[in-house]
Amino acid sequence: MQRQGTIRRHDSKLSALSRLIDSSIILLTFLALIDVFQTELTVIYVWGLLFSILLFNFFAESQDAYRSWRGTNIRDEIETVLYSWVVGVLILILIDTFWLHHQVFSEPFVAVWIVLTPIELVSWHAVVRAVLAIVRTKGLNTRKVAIIGCTSLGEKLEHSFNQMEWSGYRLEGYYDDRAVVRKSRDDRTQASKDIEVAGNIEKLISDCQLGKIDAVYITLALSAEHRIKDIVSKLSDTTASVYLVPDLFTFNLLNSRWVDYQGITAVSIFDTPFSGLDSFMKRIEDIVLSSLILCLIAIPMILIALGIKMTSKGPVLFKQARYGMDGEKFSVWKFRSMTVTKNGDKVIQAIKGDSRITSFGKFLRKTSLDELPQFFNSLRGDMSIVGPRPHAVAHNEEYRTQIQGYMLRHKMKPGITGLAQINGFRGETDTLDKMEGRVYYDLIYIQTWSLWLDFKIILLTVFKGFLHKNAY
């Protein structure tokens, strides 16, 4: 009878220990500062401390901060720690300011705690990395690894190992029955080089049995199922750890993730990043920011409406059908900037010198002020503040057949601004290359979404997203 098992998360005990140490740093720093500043530990301080630990762990877990240290970049780890601390503290400050009114965060020792704690958190994470790097440089706690398959995926894996010298992975060579030499590119010089294959699969089995290899990574194509099973069967006669690296990069992955169904593991190929709690957090972000922004721009919007009425005939606002999340149609709102705003089967984009654009409308389009009513769309839930820009229905039908993965940008709500816009892809898309560039950044955004990324995009939009040479 064939044995079956579930796939468990690697290094779960180390992850739990890391969480415990982070929480202890937050707790002990607070208590130490209480003693230094000779302040009484009141009930409100205790509750604030507990919630700060809870919020930090929540956001750190949501950002996957405690995944295996061997496989993560130190910069990513530090950014995640800082993000988790800053967001948690901001939430506590908002609660205290608008609800409790205790002015806890005006206390000097609390201000010191807010600044000192993230420094300590980052420092201990960095120190652990540095110590591990020193230890492994001396040849201790290293792992001798082998790659099965002279494939492009194997080359990517080798490059990852070379970029993580502190991790202790030492590549002993490639093993493949069907190749002798492969062409590659040197990581440092970028020059072509020939890399000899260490041997065939039988040689690998022998090396593993002799203890020359600690771990084996199989990077063969998914179509080589029977070959993989045969290799795994042979490796079961060794003590080497065996990892299957599925060549999922043959697909255009969109927010790929592991999903567990009662021990059966599946990998999503195309998925939305907004499900469950992430969807709730994104919606809260849109409601809060849209409400604040609408309060700030209320007077400018009234002045714009008067300007439109005084410079041209017609309504102040116009609406146009667009595709939203999951391809559902909705009406997007804009300030009218043209004398003709008819929607037809063939949507003609505004071009430089377009006679339909009014004099005041030209100013609105150049500064993106015509987009301001879309904050009402965001407040209603049709759109998000950050996301792929919604295209006219006719454009969708035109480009979905020309650009692979075009419709995948509808795996989330369309946005007022987005990653494509801050990278220069806004305004007229008069060539296929421009639209491909916009879609490329839209999909990158969906793949890498986080609240922190949203805040960075909003900030960059303020500084460079409103004015652009392609906006007319």
Main sheet: strand order: 2-1-5-6
Compressed to H and E, one letter per element, the order equals: HHHHEHEEEHEHEEEHEEHHEHEHHH
Number of domains: 3
Indicate the percent of residues in helices.
Answer: 40-55%
Structural class: alpha/beta
Main sheet characteristics: 4 strands, parallel
How many beta-strand runs? 12
As a percent range, the share of strand residues is 5-15%
The gross shape turns out to be: flat
Describe the oligomeric state of these chains in a short phrase: single chain
Task: Tell me what you see in this structure.
The chain is an alpha/beta fold and 472 residues long. The chain has three domains: 12-137, no CATH class; 143-250, Rossmann fold (3-Layer(aba) Sandwich), CATH 3.40.50.720; 277-465, no CATH class. The chain has 14 helices and twelve strands. The protein has helices spanning 12-36, 43-62, 74-100, 108-137, 152-162, 201-209, 225-235, 277-311, 359-367, 374-380, 393-399, 419-422, 432-448, 451-465; strands spanning 143-148, 169-175, 181-185, 192-196, 215-218, 241-244, 258-261, 264-267, 317-323, 329-335, 384-386, 415-417. The protein has a four-stranded parallel β-sheet, with helices on both faces. Helix 5 (152-162) links the parallel strand 1 (143-148) and strand 2. Helix 1 (12-36) packs antiparallel against helix 4 (108-137) and helix 8 runs antiparallel to helix 9 (359-367). 26% of the residues are buried. Residues 1-7, 185-192 and 343-347 have low confidence and may be disordered.
